[in-house]
Amino acid sequence: ALIDKGNHRHFMQKEIYEQPVVVAQTLSSYLRTLEAKVALPDMEFDLGSVERVAIVACGTASYVGAIGKYWLEQMARVPVEVDVASEFRYREPVLGPNTLGLVISQSGETADTLAALRHMKSEGVTTAGIINVPTSSMAREVDLLLPTHAGPEIGVASTKAFTCQLAVMAALAANIARAKGKLSDADEAVLVKHLAEVPAAMNAALAHDAEIEGMAHTIAGARDVLYLGRGPDYPLALEGALKLKEISYIHAEGYAAGEMKHGPIALIDESVPVIVIAPSGPLFDKTVSNMQEVQARGGKVVLISDSEGLAQAGEGALATIEMPKVHPLIAPLVYAVPVQLLAYHVAVVKGTDVDQPRNLAKSVTVE
Ligand code: AGP
Fold first, then answer.
1. Are 278 and 287 in contact (CB under 8 A)?
2. What is the pLDDT of residues 140-163, one digit of tens each?
3. How does pLDDT run across 306-365, given as a tens digit for each residue?
4. Rounded CA gap, 221 and 354, in Å?
């Protein structure tokens, strides 16, 4: 079937807007809401025996892995390492027994990730793949295919594949945790409830589109933009910076909020917008104090938080974006929406080719 943009100006915009539906679609194959259980497809190995997880991916998919590391270590108490695929093979990784190798890829064809998958298999590692294209090479070669149901993603900048990958990652983390006796029925029920709320929370996030569009003019004039986050929102800061770089060509960096004072804060002056991703929760106060260090040096903060967080720390920000109140665990899925919209609108202001940015290919099939 031909894919068109519908009422949208760009595929990227359409794909951002599709997220509540495709994430719900993806979750529906992993959640048994009536039984309050998270399920995976049948597999020929025991997740309870997994003692380490090695995650390999590129670009946006690698940030899903980095968020997954927080989730897997917290929930399942298994050590996780995350590599970008181009570094993985050549650093001669130590892959012990009982390691689960996990690749994450929208296309299932990215050359470096495919080579890493083959390397893991040749070392006797059991592999799983969170993959969007079911007919792809990776989908055929992994021992356990964990499909995302994002549908075809046309925009070179990945959006809906990212959030669908996160949904599957959460399901995998919960299943490993349960298999290892680290997730009680009660905790699993709570997790299922939070995950089931994601599509509605994404819709609430999308409702801020016009406001974000309004800020885009200010950001579009910047030479550099920083993104800050803590915990699972740190890799989301990296993703926000990548998204902005890819389509607006503005230099952007993501940092762990607490790392600012170890160097990057030297970059701050009145001309640098700083996007702070900070849902209220256990890490909020720490992030706020890092944000205040930035503000004290003239940095122009855009604070993305919920009503509680904004009431506490929104004053003095250049702009705020209010997200619905969600559990910190699922915040990266919901906070991805304003981060994507901001990059999108800045690129539109700059007049770049949003769906086909210069120098980039949708699927990178050379090493
Ligand atoms: C995302 O916006 C990028 N275009 C890029 O980082 C992409 O995520 C990466 O090339 C991985 O692609 P894959 O998911 O198809 O393997």
1. yes
2. 999 999 999 999 999 999 999 999
3. 999 999 999 999 999 999 999 999 999 999 999 999 999 999 999 998 999 989 989 888
4. 17
Between CA 84 and CA 52 the distance in angstroms is: 17
| Token pair recorded at residue 252 | 């952007």
CB 105 within 8 A of CB 81: no
How does 320-344 read in b/e, with b if 16+ C-beta sit within 10 Å?
A: bbbbbbbbbbbbbbbbbbbbbbbbb
The ipTM estimated for the assembled molecules is 0.98
In the chain, count H helices and then E strands.
14, 12
pTM: 0.97
Q: Which atom of ligand 1 is nearest to the CA of 243?
A: 2
Q: In which residue are the tokens 């990548």 written? A: 242
Cα–ligand 1 centroid distance for 46 (angstroms): 30
User: Structure tokens of 367?
Assistant: 């090493």
Cβ of residue 154 lying under 6 Å from some atom of ligand 1: no
Q: Which residues contact 130 (CB under 8 A, 6 or more apart)?
A: 61, 64, 102, 103, 104, 105, 146, 147, 148, 165, 168, 169, 172
